[in-house]
Amino acid sequence: MTGHPSGHPSALPQPWHLPFELAWEALRAGSRPVGAVLVDAGGRVVAAGRNRSEETTAPPGQLAGTAIAHAEVNALAQVPTGARADDGLRLYTTLEPCLLCSGALIHSHVRHVVYAAADPMWRGVENVPGVGGLIAERWAHREGPVGGPLAAFSRLLMDIWTMARAAAVPAAPGPGLLDAPTVHAAYAALLPHL
Ligand SMILES: [Zn+2]
């Protein structure tokens, strides 16, 4: 698919399609719209997860219905014990990892994380390795935010989630928006309005 007439891309680039597909699934299910995908050094998908904090069910080995059912945790929960840094694992997530997920990266020996958008809630988390020790040794290299339309889309999904839950704006985000069947449809529909 070629670019959108407005200049925005109309398709999500790789490797971001799957993380955002999962974020969109989460949003439609009522959970926070965050998706995470773990890939190996060859770019193959090793594990994937999404936020399920507001849901009651999850695939085996993943969390749902709890405040710690984060996308990154649900992806990393599938990493077999024994995976090590030299495996070259890399986590792609639609939103900057929080303190919990940064800790999960340490435990999982995943040394590289790429995130689409910054999360102001966790401003300063990049200073955590300053405490030194094991945290500093294993702290994953953080690459992001990637900026551009991907970051804008990620923030927009979070805004939609927030608005959809706010009693003061019951009509938000607009009738039919969450009926978009795929993340590609949502991405193409929303970006021209940014
Ligand atoms: Zn998290």
UniProtKB/TrEMBL annotation:
Coiled coil regions in record: none
Entry annotated with the keyword Transferase: no
First and last residue of the signal peptide: none
Chain ranges of the CMP/dCMP-type deaminase domain: 13-126
InterPro entries with a match to the protein in the record: APOBEC/CMP_deaminase_Zn-bd, CMP_dCMP_dom, Cytidine_deaminase-like
Keywords: Metal-binding, Zinc
Statement: the UniProt record of this protein carries the keyword Zinc: yes
Name recorded for this polypeptide: Nucleoside deaminase
The species this protein was found in: Streptomyces olindensis
